[in-house]
Write a structure and sequence with these properties.
Radius of gyration: 19 Å
Number of helices: 9
Strand content: 25-35%
Shape: globular
Bound molecules: (3R)-3-hydroxy-3-methyl-5-(phosphonooxy)pentanoic acid
Largest sheet: 9 strands, mixed
Distance between the termini: 7 Å
Helix content: 25-40%
Structural class: alpha+beta
Length: 314
């Protein structure tokens, strides 16, 4: 039996713009997906997930991970996750990373982090119709804070190049931050939202300018984190929410939740793909933010950040 687990993440700044080569900052959350891979007896050929045969259309990330590792049945996979899906918290990246880790370990292969990060990114690309950045997958594999950039800088983890675009993935030291996550209750499908932004950028002349501005906000965010300047970081998050609204990935519900969190926060924004999913608030009054969000029927929690990335147990 081989087991692996990997964390979800929140994007502090730079989502969507990162798909176009702008920088983004993400941190891993102590909410994990665990995958166990057990060779099953010949009596049960094929591959099962949580006891059910893997269907042609089910679990696309798992099917891609099976293809990438060349894993064959009979194999029983067990998945359990603390992460809600389609909530902008990186559940699919965590699933990809943990499945790859468990499958490699089950084959007696070493799960090298740069290799798993590359494979998980390719899975994300395949399931998001070629439009994806390595942000979620690298954060899930590496844990802690991650800066994605189009140029090389200090703390380099690894780099990827696809279709003429290059991403340099860096370790970013993140000071202790209190973040509240609010779940909108709407499903935000990453592929759909990324396609929406692509259409908007093609159509609207100011679309690309908004993408560049979101990148600029992420660059300023790196400095604010280094200076431990939470007031500035919060302002950058507020402005990023406006940019994401212009790109068409916010919703009235997300706008309402952000407005609800702001009186008790340094700043608040949608996080991840949008169209639903989650908001994050940077605050030193987490109880007030949680209470205010819950009063709007929004499940909210104080995020625990983690430096633990992919962990594999053969
Ligand atoms: O899938 P989510 O909601 O965790 O966010 C993905 C972040 C995007 O920038 C929207 C897409 C990407 O691949 O970077």
């Amino acid at each position: 039996v081989a087991e692996a687990s990997a964390p979800g993440k929140v994007i502090l700044l730079g989502e969507h713009a990162v798909v176009y080569g702008e920088p983004a900052i993400a941190v891993a959350l102590e909410l994990r997906t665990r995958v166990r891979a057990e060779p099953a007896g010949e009596a049960r050929p094929g591959i099962t997930v949580n006891g059910e045969p893997l269907q042609e259309k089910g679990f696309p990330h798992v099917r891609q991970a099976l293809r990438a590792t060349g894993a064959q049945g009979p194999l029983a996979l067990r998945i359990d996750s603390d992460l809600p899906s389609s909530a902008g918290l990186g559940s699919s990246a965590a699933l990809s990373a943990a499945t790859l880790g468990a499958l490699l370990a089950a084959q007696g292969r070493e799960a090298r982090l740069p290799e798993v990060a590359r494979m998980a990114f390719d899975i994300e690309l395949a399931t998001q119709e070629g439009r994806a950045s390595p942000t979620d997958t690298t954060t899930s594999v590496a844990g802690g804070g991650v800066l994605v950039d189009s140029v090389e800088g200090p703390g380099l983890l690894w780099q990827f190049e696809r279709d003429g675009k290059r991403w340099w993935l860096h370790r970013l030291e993140v000071p202790s931050l209190t973040l509240v996550v609010g779940l909108s209750g709407q499903r935000g499908r990453t592929g759909e939202q990324v396609a929406r932004v692509a259409a908007h950028v093609l159509r609207a002349p100011q679309g690309m300018a908004t993408v560049r501005e979101l990148g600029e906000l992420a660059r300023s965010g790196v400095k604010a984190l280094r200076d431990r300047d939470l007031a500035t970081l919060g302002q950058l998050m507020d402005r990023a929410h406006e940019g994401l609204r212009h790109l068409g990935v916010s919703t009235p519900r997300l706008d309402e939740l952000v407005r609800t969190a702001r009186p008790h926060s340094y700043g608040a924004k949608l996080t991840g793909a949008g169209g639903g999913g989650s908001v994050i608030a940077l605050t030193d009054q987490p109880d007030e933010v949680v209470r205010a969000l819950r009063a709007k029927e929004c499940p909210a929690l104080v995020a625990r950040l983690t430096t633990r990335g992919l962990e594999v147990r053969p």
